[in-house]
Specification:
The protein has 16 helices and 10 strands. Helix content is 57%, strand content 17%. By secondary structure, the chain is an alpha+beta fold.
Length: 412
């Protein structure tokens, strides 16, 4: 029998039981929709985060305290480490140690509750240098960013995120008003433009000179980060090597395996983020694929019922010359056609939902969340759904092909 005729026969077999056919493919539709949704949103999240990382500039190198994390324990140790000190900052600023360096800025990170009058709000404390405005590509809607004199004098001034301004001041003008944070009074000198969250959520931050955060708010004598900016893109790798050598000398470390710091370029960070998001997306897609397995079992059950109900039809076809292969192909074709249609519907539905959710996220969070059509997810979806049709439809089709035509014609 020709392929076109086989497809036509399979289609007519399914058309006689439209309601049952639609219910049969429901599990496939749900599974493929979930996979498309997860893969598309995962790709969108990855694009957003990588875009923010690239926004810091390819010349940026981050020096973090603690050894290179290889697991949760190392990550926790890195957060608590106090290995980056003033002497390290001085050494890195020395052109003799790091010839290709353009600028070096320490950063202090903490958390606290900011208050204004009766209003309170949990914020992230971010102490940076005057160059932080340019380095982190910050945009001010009102006021001005603090300068090097403010850093030197440990000025109690603050630049607040848009959400902090809304929560504490509402519709009032926050400029030159004072907020309380960690028992200190800070004068608001600027409000940042809404960033919309993401990897670096400046909306919930209170920025100030790192000297102010270090001395008055957190009472520490170390840095949580040191940001190094290379003069040229092509020198980033060389500068990163010089940074490591300088810090090893500063910390009296001879064995690189004993480093109590780790150095990350933007390329390193982007690769790490891509690995994490890809692994997470793959895991969620695998969980969603369970629905496909359930749908496959449903298809096998329905096809077995269909074989039983159509026993006389099978006997009649065999009586007029249909071979076992023809019967096998007919029922297997029905199964594959069912799952393929379910896969196609799932791809369309999942893509549409992902597109709508990307619009909602862009509007609701105020971020540039791009819709990404997951071609790999679509290809996987249609392939897996067809494979399920073959695997779970194989047994019922085999059972149908083995029926004795005489006994089949006598079946009531």
């Amino acid at each position: 029998m020709k392929l076109s005729k086989q497809i036509e026969t399979a289609y007519r077999g399914l058309e006689t039981n439209k309601s049952r056919s639609l219910l049969t493919i429901l599990g496939i539709v749900i599974g493929i929709t979930a996979i498309m949704l997860v893969v598309s949103l995962g790709a969108g999240a990855q694009a957003l985060i990588l875009g923010q990382i690239q926004g810091l500039g390819t010349q940026t190198i981050a020096v973090l305290p603690g050894r290179q994390p290889s697991g949760p324990a190392d990550a926790a140790q890195s957060i608590l480490s106090d290995s980056l000190k003033e002497k390290d900052l001085i050494a890195l600023r020395n052109k003799a140690n790091v010839p290709g360096v353009k600028d070096v800025m320490p950063a202090i990170i903490g958390a606290g509750t900011a208050s204004y009058g009766s209003e309170v709000y949990q914020v992230t404390i971010f102490g940076v240098g005057a160059q932080g405005e340019k380095l982190f590509d910050l945009h001010i809607t009102d006021g001005y960013f603090f300068d090097n004199i403010d850093v030197q004098n440990r000025s109690t001034v603050a630049v607040i995120g848009s959400k902090v301004a809304d929560q504490l001041f509402g519709n009032s003008d926050p400029i030159n008003e004072t907020i309380r944070l960690k028992g200190r009074t800070l004068r608001v000198i600027a409000v940042l433009k809404t960033s919309g969250g993401g990897l670096f959520n400046y909306d919930d931050m209170v920025l100030m000179p790192y000297t102010t955060a270090q001395t008055y708010l957190l009472g520490i004598n170390y840095y949580n980060r040191i940001i190094v900016e290379a003069e040229e893109d092509q020198n980033v790798s060389e500068v990163a090597k010089d940074v490591k050598l300088t810090l090893r000398e500063s910390h009296n470390i001879d064995d690189p395996a004993k480093d109590d710091f780790n150095v990350q370029t933007q390329q390193d960070l982007a690769a790490t983020i891509s690995t994490i998001t890809s692994a997470l997306t793959g895991f969620l897609a695998a969980v969603a694929a369970i629905a496909l397995f359930v749908g496959g079992i449903g298809i096998m059950n329905i096809m077995l019922v269909s074989v039983t109900e159509r026993t006389r039809e099978i006997g009649l076809r065999k009586a007029i010359g249909a071979t076992n292969k023809d019967i096998l192909t007919q029922f297997l074709g029905e199964s594959v056609l069912l799952t393929a249609v379910g896969g196609l519907i799932g791809i369309i539905l999942g893509s549409l939902l992902a597109f709508l959710i990307s619009i909602v996220l862009s509007k609701g969070l105020g971020v540039d969340w791009k819709y990404v059509f997951p071609w790999d997810g679509a290809l996987m979806g249609i392939s897996v759904s067809a494979l399920i049709g073959l695997v779970f439809g194989g047994y019922p089709a085999h059972q149908a092909s083995k029926k004795n035509p005489i006994e089949a014609l006598r079946y009531e």
